[in-house]
Amino acid sequence: MNIDLTKMYDISMPITHDMKVYKGKEEKRPVLAAQSTFLTGSAYESVITMNMHTGSHIDSNLHMIDGGSTVESLNIKELLTKCRVIDLSECTNSISKEDLVNKNIQSGSFLLFKTRNSTEDILEKDFIYLDRTGASYLAELDIAGVGTDGLGIERAQSDHKTHLVLMNKGIHILEGLRLADIEEGEYFLSALPILISGAEASPIRAVLIGLS
User: Fold this and answer.
1) Which of 92, 48, 57 lies closest to 200 in space, CA to CA?
2) Fewer CB atoms inside 10 Å of the end CB: C or N, the chain?
3) Of 157, 69, 165, 176, nearest to 118 (Cα)?
């Protein structure tokens, strides 16, 4: 595998107070404050208060499983990997098994789903999500990871079945990716989390690099 550093794409969401957040909830908006240092007044420092599930981030099992694994246990080698972007713009509500069966998905794949979430103003509304049939299908195929351009891999599922099916198979979950300008195909992915001990999720700076 040869990577082409001239073809690098930032697929992360910028962190701002006015960014899109899950269901548009005000309490989920990040708060940033810039201030000069109190000692000398000659330097600037910033403070941010932010939910771990804001913008582009990775979930660890503790998010949905009591006693589950946390961010520091993630194998970051698995988040520096070849991946495949699949265009699912035809999906109007959710991504189901039916939408995936003809996509020639291979065991061990790391998949990123490009949907209407990247191109339409639906992130805080009824964004496209992966339903339980789609999650079960991916688990059966034993993929390595899945990323979505929605603010969640699921949307208002009271039993959190999508999360649980994937987590119980050790499948990495990335949420909040920006894929509007990304063409379907294969790339190298870097999606490293901040090393936050004991956390159930972490922000990521997600980058795709072209392959040659």
Assistant:
1) 57
2) N
3) 176
The Cα-based distances of 179 to 49, 113, 158, 201 in angstroms read 26, 8, 27, 21
Residue type, 12: S
Burial of 33 (0-12, 13-18, 19+ CB in 10 A): exposed
Render pLDDT for 145-204 as a digit per residue (tens, 0 to 9): 999 999 999 998 889 999 999 999 999 999 999 999 999 999 999 999 999 999 999 999
| Confidence band, pLDDT 50/70/90 cuts, at residue 41 | low
Is the distance from CB of 83 to CB of 187 less than 8 angstroms? yes
Tokens 């000659």 label which residue?
Answer: 42
Six-digit token string for 190: 């870097």
Q: Which of 15, 12, 22, 10 is nearest to 56 (CA)?
A: 12
Short-list 160, 145, 141, 151, CA closest to 192: 145
| Contact assessment for residue 210 and residue 189, using Cβ atoms and an 8 Å cutoff | no
